[in-house]
Amino acid sequence: xxxxxxxxxxxxxxxxxxxxxxxxxxxxxxxxxxxxxxxxxxxxxxxxxxxxxxxxxxxxxxxxxxxxxxxxxxxxxxxxxxxxxxxxxxxxxxxxxxxxxxxxxxxxxxxxxxxxxxxxxxxxxxxxxxxxxxxxxxxxxxxxxxxxxxxxxxxxxxxxxxxxxxxxxxxxxxxxxxxxxxxxxxxxxxxxxxxxxxxxxxxxxxxxxxxxxxxxxxxxxxxxxxxxxxxxxxxxxxxxxxxxxx
Length: 246
What we know:
alpha+beta
């Protein structure tokens, strides 16, 4: 279940212009979606709405999941593994996740799959079902609660992240290629002036914050955009402390 060796450029396809925002889609789904059985893909890190997920699928149970979702053109759920391993089962899984829609896929001659999926509406787990033949759960769409993030807060949060990225670059702690860094900088410049839906904006920003799995999960599970920005600020506090100590 490892990502392919060549991951897609993080600046491409992650947050293209859409006719509807992520929160619009989530609310539309929520109107017609009570608890629904979904194929589930637990991973070591959570998936955020709008983010790109490359997958290299080799376990038989997830090959079966890939066949189901590609044959029926249906999304699967992604949740974070809190304890345990991606391979073999027996893991402890989070109860908040994200639906993922298959954008590209290919079944290889030896039965493995390579797949590219994109994060959609956020979900809660109502009940885990038996892992037969793959992890399954009853899920409920979980839209953000309504809240706004004013333009001053947006600009200040983006500016802070850009300053920390510049500091990381100075000390050689970026961890991305020059092309990836340029794409992120361009995206941040757009977000600094964006007046789009607060949920969509906050998830776009969250995807660009350097964070470990549990911090990313905290951003995912924040109840509304304003709370998510507070979580992001806390994560940036930690980044600033780390960079300041180098």
